[in-house]
Amino acid sequence: MASHETSPEVPPHKPDALDAYESSMRDAFQAAQIDDIQSAGDYLLHATHRLLRNTKELSLYQENIDGHEPRSNWREKRREVWKTFNNAWLAILLRQTELCKEELRSGRKISRPASRISRNFLERMGNELTSLQDDIKNQGLSDYGELGVWDEQIKDQLLKCRELVLRLDGPFSPDIVIEDLRAKPDRR
């Protein structure tokens, strides 16, 4: 009986979901390289949906959840996927912060191709990330070290961005939820 070993680059299920996620991440990084942070945020949100809606199928969840452990040859790739995901959120939000600070210092809006995330879209990013995290909380993927979403770090950076955008553009709508991100009960 011949043994068939899968490649560590391909998860045991749904390789097209991973391909779609990785494609959106590449687009996000390319947009960020030219300081088109609005587009980078849009691509990042698409990637977030693709990843967080397929965590179980892609075996991206905490090991030994429900007595099931993902294939050992997928462990390192899985860690890398989460690291890239979290670092993308932090890097794009950090660049948003830098662009806002540049605008505040110079008193001039940034010009194309550079763009920053609009206040409405920043609100949407925070709300959708929170909603998607609620969907995966039972998989142990919120602030779980190497696996899952670096919840607190990302929310802290979202709040910093929010404060800067408020200074530049004025207040958000009264029904904003980003400021309530930290008020959510601990999901561990």
Summarize the structure.
With 188 residues, this protein is an all-alpha fold.
Structural class by secondary-structure content: mainly alpha
- How far the N terminus sits from the C terminus, by CA atoms, comes to 44 Å
Order of helices and strands: HHHHH
Number of DSSP helical runs: 5
Strand content bin: under 5%
Low-pLDDT sequence parts = 1-12, 173-188
Mean pLDDT: 77
Q: Calculate Rg over CA atoms.
A: 18 Å
What share of residues is helical? 55-70%
Total strand segments: 0
Largest sheet: none
The outline comes out as: elongated
Question: How would you characterize the overall build of this protein?
Answer:
The protein has 188 residues and is mainly α. Helix content is 55%, strand content 0%. The chain is built from five helices and no strands. Helix 3 (75-106) packs parallel to helix 5 and helix 4 (119-136) packs antiparallel against helix 5.
